[in-house]
Design goal:
This protein has 279 residues and is of the alpha/beta class. It contains 12 helices and 8 strands. Strand 2 and strand 3 form a beta hairpin. It starts with 11 loop residues before the first helix and ends in a 12-residue tail after the last helix.
Length: 279
Amino acid sequence: MADTPAPQPTNPSWERVQLARHPKRPHSLDYIQRLFTNFNELHGDRAFGEDHAIVAGMGWFHEKPVMVIAQEKGRDTKQKIYRNFGCPRPEGYRKAIRLMQLAAKFNRPIVTFLDTQGAWPGKDAEERGQGEAIAYNLREMSRLGVPVIVVVIGEGGSGGALALGVGNRVYMLENAVYSVISPESCAAIIYRDSGKAPQAAAALKMTAPDLLDLGLIDGIIPEPGEGAHTDPDNAAEALGVMLKLALDELSKVSGRELIEERYEKFRRMGAFFTEAAAT
């Protein structure tokens, strides 16, 4: 009689990476459709052109006007090509900050949805100043005198996600991931083997529970069933509840206090201290 194979150890981090990438997982447009009314998309960076990887516009949330900035991957092959697989180019980031500054001018809260493997790494993006565009957004988002709420709905990849991620409140869906690098790229660099991506996913501490423990996010939005793809309506409802609570709370804070709170929030990240060993 053949020996029964030993059960393989589970890897919750890698399982969540797979759920974050599930082909039927709700994307930004799915949440925009369910949560916001009278959404009017705005286009262009007023310098080069339009980037379809970022969807942005004004809408209404619980009868209050908000600016929505979202990364969109696309669903089928045609849409994915149109959306550049959710990987923004510099003009996308410049469009985003242009509209954020417009929102600040008219005192509109800003909601961003993060869902990208990372910024587009192509030669064209580098020639048009990809790194500068991301750095500019990081600086300017820290100075916005209106509430900024960030939600990681799927993959939050590196600076490509962080360029829209400087918020007063940062939330993650239960099975979303947020990291400086993808597990495959990390494994290729650290282990010289991209096949060790599951091991890298665990080491990166990229899941919502990990990041909440590290103090890098403010809350986790629960997902229904086996993931948001099993019930997009309930997933959107849970996200909407968290958005409303955050907007109600932040609407009572002055613009100056919002800026100071946001600045201090991100300055504290990564600052760890340990006592020196006794000599």
